[in-house]
Amino acid sequence: MKYSDYVDAIPLGSCPFCASDDRKFIENKTAYVTYALAPYHKHHLLIVPKEHKKSFLHLSPEEHMDIQDLAEKSSRLLRYLGYEDFTLMVREGAGGGKSVEHLHYHFIPNVRLGDLDHANGVRNLMSDGELKSLVEEVRNVIDRL
Ligand SMILES: [Zn+2]
Question: pTM of the entire structure?
Answer without folding.
Answer: 0.81
